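Response to reviewer comment R2.3. The reviewers asked that we include at least one raw input/output pair. We reproduce the pair for M20 family peptidase here without editing.
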Amino acid sequence: EKVDYVVVGEPTSMEICVASRGRVEITAEFHGKPSHAALPEKGVNAVAKAAKAVLKVAEMEKGFGPGRRHVGRATAAATMFEGGLKPNVIPETAKITIDVRTVGQRPDRVLELFKRRLKPSRADLTAFIPEYVVDERSRVVKACKNAVREAGFKPVLTGFRAVADLNRMARVRRVEGVILGPGPLSLAHTFEEKVAVSELVKAAQVYRRVVELLLA
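Raw output as returned:
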C-alpha cells in the first residue's frame, strides 16, 4: 500500500519537527582479574574500569562534534551498567550500554570514537537508526503549518532531539513526514509524563485538518 505523507504524534508541544536525530547504541565490555574482595590488590576490578568509562561518557552528555540546524549536536549517555558476580569477589567483567544521538555521524565511526575514548576490552554496535530530514517546502510541512495556525498555535519549525517511528518509515517506505504532537518531550519517560486534555483535543483537530488539506 502506497503512503505519501506521514505525521507522527510524538510530544513536540505542537511544534512541527522537520528533522530528527539518529540513534546508535553501543555495548562496551571491560575485563579484569577476579580475587577475594578482602585482597583487592590481588585482582583487577572490571567494575572500576567501567565506572571510569561512564564518567568519560558523561562528559559528552552536553554535546560533541559539529551541530546541525534544528537538532543541535550529537550527545551520548551511559544508560545501563552490569557487573560483578558476588558481593565478596573483585569483579572480572563489567558492561555498559551507551545511547548516542547522532547528527550525521556514521555508526562505524561512532563505534571507533568510543573504542578510542573508553578503551574497552570489547565494544559492539547493537542498534542503529538513521536521522531524518524533510524538505521544509514539502506539502506535508505546509499543511501542518496551516493546520497549526488555524488551531490557534504559532507555527514553529524545529527539530526532534529523540528518534521516532518516522526515522524508520522514511527509510523503508520512502515517505515525507513530520513529527507533531501534544505535550513536551521534556516530560517523556519521567514520573511527571502527561498531556493536557485541551492540547490533546486541539491536536486531534490539527491532524484532521492536515488530512483535509493534503487531500484537497
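The domain at 5-21+132-215 is CATH 3.40.630.10 (Aminopeptidase). The chain has a mean pLDDT of 95. Further pairs are available on request from the corresponding author.
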